[in-house]
UniProtKB/TrEMBL annotation:
Keywords: DNA integration, DNA recombination, DNA-binding. SUPFAM superfamilies: DNA breaking-rejoining enzymes. It comes from the Bacteria. This is Integrase. The keyword Acyltransferase does not apply. The lineage of its organism: Bacteria, Pseudomonadati, Pseudomonadota, Alphaproteobacteria, Rhodobacterales.
Protein backbone atom coordinates (compact mmCIF):
# COMPACT_ATOMS: atom_id res chain seq x y z
CA UNK A 1 0.00 0.00 0.00
CA UNK A 2 1.46 3.43 -0.97
CA UNK A 3 2.96 5.52 1.82
CA UNK A 4 1.69 8.90 3.04
CA UNK A 5 3.61 11.80 4.53
CA UNK A 6 1.88 11.21 7.88
CA UNK A 7 3.04 7.57 7.92
CA UNK A 8 6.61 8.52 7.11
CA UNK A 9 6.75 11.20 9.82
CA UNK A 10 5.41 8.71 12.39
CA UNK A 11 7.93 5.95 11.64
CA UNK A 12 9.94 5.27 14.80
CA UNK A 13 13.65 4.23 14.85
CA UNK A 14 14.61 0.74 16.03
CA UNK A 15 17.83 -0.88 17.17
CA UNK A 16 18.60 -1.82 13.58
CA UNK A 17 17.80 -0.12 10.25
CA UNK A 18 14.56 -1.26 8.62
CA UNK A 19 12.69 -0.57 5.37
CA UNK A 20 9.14 0.52 4.61
CA UNK A 21 8.03 0.20 0.98
CA UNK A 22 6.04 2.64 -1.12
CA UNK A 23 5.52 0.96 -4.51
CA UNK A 24 7.32 0.18 -7.79
CA UNK A 25 10.60 -0.38 -5.97
CA UNK A 26 10.63 2.84 -3.90
CA UNK A 27 11.16 2.48 -0.14
CA UNK A 28 12.38 4.49 2.84
CA UNK A 29 15.05 3.21 5.24
CA UNK A 30 14.77 4.28 8.87
CA UNK A 31 18.13 4.31 10.68
CA UNK A 32 18.61 3.87 14.45
CA UNK A 33 19.46 7.60 14.57
CA UNK A 34 15.95 8.39 13.26
CA UNK A 35 17.05 9.57 9.79
CA UNK A 36 14.87 8.52 6.86
CA UNK A 37 16.60 7.81 3.52
CA UNK A 38 14.97 7.19 0.15
CA UNK A 39 16.09 4.24 -1.96
CA UNK A 40 14.88 2.44 -5.04
CA UNK A 41 15.40 -1.23 -5.74
CA UNK A 42 15.65 -2.32 -9.38
CA UNK A 43 17.03 -5.12 -11.54
CA UNK A 44 19.20 -4.86 -14.64
CA UNK A 45 20.87 -7.70 -16.54
CA UNK A 46 19.52 -10.10 -13.92
CA UNK A 47 21.24 -8.27 -11.06
CA UNK A 48 19.48 -6.49 -8.23
CA UNK A 49 20.81 -2.97 -7.61
CA UNK A 50 19.95 -0.02 -5.39
CA UNK A 51 19.67 3.69 -6.09
CA UNK A 52 19.78 6.43 -3.42
CA UNK A 53 17.68 9.60 -3.68
CA UNK A 54 18.50 11.44 -0.44
CA UNK A 55 16.93 12.06 2.96
CA UNK A 56 13.33 12.79 3.93
CA UNK A 57 11.97 15.48 4.38
CA UNK A 58 14.62 17.30 2.27
CA UNK A 59 13.42 15.01 -0.51
CA UNK A 60 9.63 14.87 -0.16
CA UNK A 61 7.49 11.85 -0.94
CA UNK A 62 6.37 13.44 -4.21
CA UNK A 63 9.99 14.23 -5.22
CA UNK A 64 11.12 10.70 -4.38
CA UNK A 65 8.36 9.26 -6.59
CA UNK A 66 9.39 11.60 -9.42
CA UNK A 67 13.01 10.46 -9.12
CA UNK A 68 11.84 6.82 -9.12
CA UNK A 69 9.74 7.42 -12.26
CA UNK A 70 12.74 9.03 -14.01
CA UNK A 71 14.90 6.04 -13.10
CA UNK A 72 12.27 3.62 -14.40
CA UNK A 73 12.14 5.56 -17.66
CA UNK A 74 15.90 5.11 -18.04
CA UNK A 75 15.53 1.40 -17.34
CA UNK A 76 12.86 1.20 -20.06
CA UNK A 77 15.35 2.86 -22.43
CA UNK A 78 17.98 0.23 -21.61
CA UNK A 79 20.06 2.48 -19.34
CA UNK A 80 21.28 1.72 -15.85
CA UNK A 81 20.04 4.67 -13.71
CA UNK A 82 22.74 4.01 -11.10
CA UNK A 83 25.52 4.32 -13.69
CA UNK A 84 23.86 7.40 -15.20
CA UNK A 85 23.83 9.02 -11.76
CA UNK A 86 27.52 8.19 -11.23
CA UNK A 87 28.40 9.69 -14.60
CA UNK A 88 26.41 12.86 -13.87
CA UNK A 89 28.23 13.18 -10.54
CA UNK A 90 31.58 12.64 -12.27
CA UNK A 91 30.79 15.29 -14.87
CA UNK A 92 29.74 17.72 -12.15
CA UNK A 93 33.04 17.15 -10.34
CA UNK A 94 34.94 17.63 -13.59
CA UNK A 95 33.19 20.97 -14.11
CA UNK A 96 34.03 22.02 -10.54
CA UNK A 97 37.67 21.02 -11.01
CA UNK A 98 37.89 22.77 -14.37
CA UNK A 99 36.89 26.24 -13.25
CA UNK A 100 39.52 28.82 -14.13
CA UNK A 101 40.37 29.66 -10.51
CA UNK A 102 41.23 26.05 -9.64
CA UNK A 103 43.39 25.61 -12.72
CA UNK A 104 45.13 28.90 -11.99
CA UNK A 105 45.94 27.59 -8.50
CA UNK A 106 47.25 24.34 -10.01
CA UNK A 107 49.42 26.33 -12.43
CA UNK A 108 50.83 28.42 -9.56
CA UNK A 109 51.54 25.27 -7.57
CA UNK A 110 53.44 23.84 -10.54
CA UNK A 111 55.47 27.04 -10.89
CA UNK A 112 56.32 26.91 -7.17
CA UNK A 113 57.58 23.32 -7.46
CA UNK A 114 59.76 24.44 -10.36
CA UNK A 115 61.54 26.77 -7.96
CA UNK A 116 60.44 30.11 -9.36
CA UNK A 117 61.84 33.16 -7.58
CA UNK A 118 59.70 34.68 -4.82
CA UNK A 119 59.33 37.92 -6.78
CA UNK A 120 58.03 35.97 -9.77
CA UNK A 121 55.54 34.08 -7.60
CA UNK A 122 54.25 37.32 -6.07
CA UNK A 123 53.78 38.91 -9.51
CA UNK A 124 52.03 35.79 -10.81
CA UNK A 125 49.68 35.80 -7.80
CA UNK A 126 48.89 39.47 -8.37
CA UNK A 127 48.30 39.15 -12.12
CA UNK A 128 46.17 36.01 -11.95
CA UNK A 129 44.21 37.54 -9.09
CA UNK A 130 42.81 40.06 -11.60
CA UNK A 131 41.79 37.27 -13.96
CA UNK A 132 40.19 35.27 -11.14
CA UNK A 133 38.18 38.32 -10.09
CA UNK A 134 36.91 38.66 -13.67
CA UNK A 135 36.02 35.07 -14.60
CA UNK A 136 37.57 32.76 -12.02
CA UNK A 137 34.28 31.01 -11.17
CA UNK A 138 33.65 29.91 -14.77
CA UNK A 139 34.67 26.55 -16.25
CA UNK A 140 37.79 27.29 -18.27
CA UNK A 141 36.16 25.92 -21.43
CA UNK A 142 33.55 28.68 -21.14
CA UNK A 143 36.11 31.50 -20.89
CA UNK A 144 36.14 33.21 -24.28
CA UNK A 145 38.43 35.69 -26.00
CA UNK A 146 35.93 38.57 -25.44
CA UNK A 147 35.83 37.76 -21.69
CA UNK A 148 39.62 37.84 -21.45
CA UNK A 149 39.78 41.02 -23.53
CA UNK A 150 37.26 42.74 -21.25
CA UNK A 151 39.51 41.94 -18.28
CA UNK A 152 42.59 43.22 -20.11
CA UNK A 153 40.80 46.39 -21.23
CA UNK A 154 40.08 47.27 -17.58
CA UNK A 155 43.82 47.18 -16.88
CA UNK A 156 44.64 48.98 -20.10
CA UNK A 157 42.12 51.75 -19.33
CA UNK A 158 44.28 52.75 -16.34
CA UNK A 159 47.22 53.27 -18.66
CA UNK A 160 48.94 50.08 -17.47
CA UNK A 161 49.81 48.74 -20.91
CA UNK A 162 52.76 46.62 -19.80
CA UNK A 163 50.64 45.05 -17.04
CA UNK A 164 47.89 44.21 -19.55
CA UNK A 165 50.45 42.55 -21.78
CA UNK A 166 51.84 40.46 -18.92
CA UNK A 167 48.35 39.57 -17.70
CA UNK A 168 47.46 38.22 -21.15
CA UNK A 169 50.63 36.10 -21.06
CA UNK A 170 49.80 34.69 -17.60
CA UNK A 171 46.22 33.85 -18.56
CA UNK A 172 47.62 32.13 -21.65
CA UNK A 173 50.00 30.14 -19.44
CA UNK A 174 47.04 28.83 -17.40
CA UNK A 175 45.25 27.84 -20.61
CA UNK A 176 48.33 26.02 -21.92
CA UNK A 177 48.53 24.18 -18.59
CA UNK A 178 44.85 23.24 -18.95
CA UNK A 179 45.39 22.08 -22.55
CA UNK A 180 48.27 19.86 -21.42
CA UNK A 181 46.02 18.48 -18.67
CA UNK A 182 43.30 17.59 -21.20
CA UNK A 183 40.76 20.00 -19.70
CA UNK A 184 40.39 22.36 -22.66
CA UNK A 185 41.45 22.39 -26.31
CA UNK A 186 42.02 26.06 -27.18
CA UNK A 187 43.79 29.11 -25.77
CA UNK A 188 41.59 32.23 -26.30
CA UNK A 189 44.50 34.57 -25.53
CA UNK A 190 46.20 33.59 -28.80
CA UNK A 191 43.63 35.61 -30.76
CA UNK A 192 44.36 38.69 -28.61
CA UNK A 193 48.03 39.11 -29.48
CA UNK A 194 47.41 42.23 -31.55
CA UNK A 195 44.37 43.51 -29.65
CA UNK A 196 46.23 45.41 -26.92
CA UNK A 197 48.07 48.70 -27.03
CA UNK A 198 51.76 47.93 -27.28
CA UNK A 199 53.64 49.32 -24.27
CA UNK A 200 56.40 51.76 -25.03
CA UNK A 201 59.76 50.18 -24.36
CA UNK A 202 61.54 52.29 -21.78
CA UNK A 203 65.14 51.54 -20.95
CA UNK A 204 66.06 51.73 -17.29
CA UNK A 205 67.81 55.02 -16.67
CA UNK A 206 71.57 54.84 -16.21
CA UNK A 207 74.52 57.21 -16.08
CA UNK A 208 77.08 56.23 -18.73
CA UNK A 209 79.32 59.30 -18.69
CA UNK A 210 82.44 58.48 -16.61
CA UNK A 211 82.67 61.94 -15.01
CA UNK A 212 78.98 61.94 -14.03
CA UNK A 213 79.28 58.39 -12.75
CA UNK A 214 82.27 59.43 -10.63
CA UNK A 215 80.04 62.10 -9.09
CA UNK A 216 77.45 59.45 -8.25
CA UNK A 217 80.07 57.25 -6.57
CA UNK A 218 81.24 60.20 -4.47
CA UNK A 219 77.63 60.90 -3.49
CA UNK A 220 77.17 57.28 -2.43
CA UNK A 221 80.23 57.53 -0.17
CA UNK A 222 78.64 60.56 1.52
CA UNK A 223 75.26 58.81 1.93
CA UNK A 224 73.81 59.68 5.35
CA UNK A 225 71.34 56.78 5.61
CA UNK A 226 71.85 53.18 6.70
CA UNK A 227 75.42 51.89 6.32
CA UNK A 228 74.08 48.67 4.81
CA UNK A 229 72.27 50.64 2.10
CA UNK A 230 75.46 52.52 1.22
CA UNK A 231 77.38 49.23 0.97
CA UNK A 232 74.62 47.74 -1.19
CA UNK A 233 74.85 50.65 -3.64
CA UNK A 234 78.64 50.30 -3.82
CA UNK A 235 78.37 46.56 -4.42
CA UNK A 236 75.79 47.16 -7.15
CA UNK A 237 78.28 49.45 -8.86
CA UNK A 238 81.19 47.01 -8.51
CA UNK A 239 79.44 43.68 -9.21
CA UNK A 240 76.80 44.85 -11.76
CA UNK A 241 74.28 42.20 -10.75
CA UNK A 242 70.51 42.65 -10.66
CA UNK A 243 69.28 44.56 -7.59
CA UNK A 244 66.98 41.70 -6.56
CA UNK A 245 69.85 39.21 -6.69
CA UNK A 246 71.95 41.41 -4.42
CA UNK A 247 69.34 42.45 -1.87
CA UNK A 248 68.18 38.82 -1.44
CA UNK A 249 71.73 37.44 -1.24
CA UNK A 250 72.56 35.20 1.72
CA UNK A 251 75.91 34.78 3.43
CA UNK A 252 75.85 31.07 2.53
CA UNK A 253 76.29 32.02 -1.14
CA UNK A 254 79.65 33.74 -0.54
CA UNK A 255 83.09 32.19 -0.28
CA UNK A 256 85.26 35.12 0.74
CA UNK A 257 88.40 32.96 0.80
CA UNK A 258 87.96 31.96 -2.84
CA UNK A 259 86.55 35.40 -3.73
CA UNK A 260 83.40 34.08 -5.38
CA UNK A 261 79.66 34.64 -5.06
CA UNK A 262 77.58 31.70 -6.31
CA UNK A 263 73.96 32.69 -6.96
CA UNK A 264 71.71 29.60 -7.07
CA UNK A 265 69.50 28.97 -10.10
CA UNK A 266 66.23 29.55 -8.23
CA UNK A 267 67.22 33.17 -7.58
CA UNK A 268 68.33 33.92 -11.13
CA UNK A 269 66.06 35.41 -13.77
CA UNK A 270 67.02 32.73 -16.32
CA UNK A 271 66.90 29.87 -13.75
CA UNK A 272 70.60 29.04 -14.20
CA UNK A 273 73.24 29.31 -11.44
CA UNK A 274 75.62 32.24 -11.83
CA UNK A 275 79.11 32.74 -10.43
CA UNK A 276 80.41 36.24 -9.71
CA UNK A 277 84.13 36.91 -9.12
CA UNK A 278 84.77 39.22 -6.18
CA UNK A 279 87.51 41.84 -6.66
CA UNK A 280 89.43 43.18 -3.67
CA UNK A 281 87.18 46.26 -3.36
CA UNK A 282 84.07 44.06 -3.09
CA UNK A 283 85.77 41.77 -0.55
CA UNK A 284 86.61 44.79 1.61
CA UNK A 285 83.00 45.94 1.61
CA UNK A 286 81.73 42.42 2.35
CA UNK A 287 84.08 42.05 5.32
CA UNK A 288 82.81 45.37 6.70
CA UNK A 289 79.24 44.23 6.12
CA UNK A 290 79.84 40.86 7.79
CA UNK A 291 80.60 42.64 11.05
CA UNK A 292 77.14 44.22 10.85
CA UNK A 293 74.86 41.49 9.48
CA UNK A 294 77.07 38.38 9.47
CA UNK A 295 75.13 36.72 12.30
CA UNK A 296 71.97 36.58 10.16
CA UNK A 297 70.94 34.88 6.94
CA UNK A 298 70.80 37.86 4.58
CA UNK A 299 73.56 40.31 3.71
CA UNK A 300 70.94 43.05 3.63
CA UNK A 301 68.13 42.19 6.04
CA UNK A 302 65.01 44.29 6.38
CA UNK A 303 65.06 46.86 9.15
CA UNK A 304 61.82 45.31 10.43
CA UNK A 305 62.93 41.67 10.48
CA UNK A 306 66.25 39.88 10.13
CA UNK A 307 64.29 37.03 8.55
CA UNK A 308 63.41 39.08 5.45
CA UNK A 309 65.66 40.81 2.93
CA UNK A 310 65.83 44.52 2.26
CA UNK A 311 62.79 46.01 0.50
CA UNK A 312 62.95 46.25 -3.29
CA UNK A 313 62.31 50.01 -3.00
CA UNK A 314 65.24 50.72 -0.66
CA UNK A 315 67.99 51.15 -3.26
CA UNK A 316 66.00 53.31 -5.66
CA UNK A 317 64.81 55.31 -2.67
CA UNK A 318 68.41 55.88 -1.62
CA UNK A 319 69.27 57.17 -5.11
CA UNK A 320 66.35 59.61 -4.88
CA UNK A 321 67.66 60.84 -1.50
CA UNK A 322 71.01 61.44 -3.18
CA UNK A 323 69.23 63.67 -5.69
CA UNK A 324 69.04 61.28 -8.66
CA UNK A 325 65.51 60.94 -10.03
CA UNK A 326 64.16 57.98 -12.00
CA UNK A 327 65.05 59.60 -15.32
CA UNK A 328 68.73 59.88 -14.32
CA UNK A 329 69.63 56.67 -12.50
CA UNK A 330 68.02 53.49 -11.17
CA UNK A 331 69.37 50.60 -9.11
CA UNK A 332 69.14 48.41 -12.21
CA UNK A 333 70.98 51.08 -14.20
CA UNK A 334 74.36 50.10 -12.68
CA UNK A 335 74.31 47.12 -15.04
CA UNK A 336 73.87 49.37 -18.08
CA UNK A 337 76.70 51.58 -16.85
CA UNK A 338 79.01 48.57 -16.57
CA UNK A 339 77.98 47.17 -19.95
CA UNK A 340 78.40 50.49 -21.75
CA UNK A 341 81.75 51.50 -20.27
CA UNK A 342 83.27 48.00 -20.37
CA UNK A 343 82.33 47.61 -24.03
CA UNK A 344 83.54 51.12 -24.89
CA UNK A 345 86.92 50.34 -23.35
CA UNK A 346 87.62 47.83 -26.15
CA UNK A 347 89.61 45.73 -23.68
CA UNK A 348 87.20 42.85 -23.22
CA UNK A 349 85.43 40.17 -25.22
CA UNK A 350 81.77 41.25 -25.50
CA UNK A 351 80.74 37.67 -24.69
CA UNK A 352 82.67 37.86 -21.40
CA UNK A 353 80.80 41.07 -20.55
CA UNK A 354 77.47 39.42 -21.38
CA UNK A 355 78.39 36.41 -19.23
CA UNK A 356 79.31 38.73 -16.35
CA UNK A 357 75.80 40.20 -16.60
CA UNK A 358 74.30 36.66 -16.60
CA UNK A 359 72.74 37.25 -19.99
CA UNK A 360 71.86 33.91 -21.58
CA UNK A 361 72.76 33.25 -25.21
CA UNK A 362 69.65 32.57 -27.29
CA UNK A 363 71.51 29.84 -29.18
CA UNK A 364 71.14 26.74 -26.98
CA UNK A 365 74.02 24.83 -28.59
CA UNK A 366 76.36 27.80 -28.30
CA UNK A 367 75.26 28.27 -24.70
CA UNK A 368 76.15 24.66 -23.83
CA UNK A 369 79.69 25.03 -25.20
CA UNK A 370 80.19 28.52 -23.75
CA UNK A 371 79.03 27.68 -20.23
CA UNK A 372 82.52 27.27 -18.80
CA UNK A 373 84.23 29.88 -20.96
CA UNK A 374 85.38 33.38 -20.05
CA UNK A 375 85.79 32.73 -16.31
CA UNK A 376 89.44 33.80 -16.14
CA UNK A 377 88.73 36.78 -18.38
CA UNK A 378 85.75 37.66 -16.18
CA UNK A 379 88.00 37.62 -13.08
CA UNK A 380 90.37 40.05 -14.81
CA UNK A 381 87.38 42.10 -16.02
CA UNK A 382 86.01 42.32 -12.45
CA UNK A 383 89.38 43.52 -11.12
CA UNK A 384 89.70 46.06 -13.94
CA UNK A 385 86.16 47.36 -13.42
CA UNK A 386 86.60 47.83 -9.66
CA UNK A 387 89.88 49.68 -10.28
CA UNK A 388 88.26 51.78 -13.01
CA UNK A 389 85.54 52.83 -10.55
CA UNK A 390 88.22 53.94 -8.10
CA UNK A 391 89.70 56.07 -10.87
CA UNK A 392 86.41 57.68 -11.98
CA UNK A 393 85.51 58.37 -8.37
CA UNK A 394 88.88 60.12 -7.94
CA UNK A 395 88.13 62.08 -11.11
CA UNK A 396 90.93 60.60 -13.20
CA UNK A 397 89.68 57.72 -15.42
CA UNK A 398 92.20 56.41 -17.95
Amino acid sequence: MPLTDTQIRNLKPKDKPYKVSDFQGLYVTIAPSGSRLWHMKYRIDGREKRLSFGAYPAISLAQARKLRDDARARLAAGEDPGEVKKEEKRQKLLVQESIFAKLAEAYKSKAEKEGRADATKIKTEWLLGMAIDAFGNKPIAEVTSPMVLACLRMVEAKGNHETAKRLRAKIGAVFRYAIASGVVEHDPTFALRDALIRPKVKSRSAITDPKEFGGLLRSIDRFQGQVTTRIALRLLAILAQRPGELRQATWAEFDLEKAIWLIPAERMKMRMPHSVPLPAQALGLLKDLKRITGNGVFLFPSLRSMLRPMSENTLNGALRRLGYDGDEMTAHGFRATFSTLANESGLWNPDAIERALAHVDGNKIRRIYARGEFWEERVRLADWWAGYLDEVEAGSPN
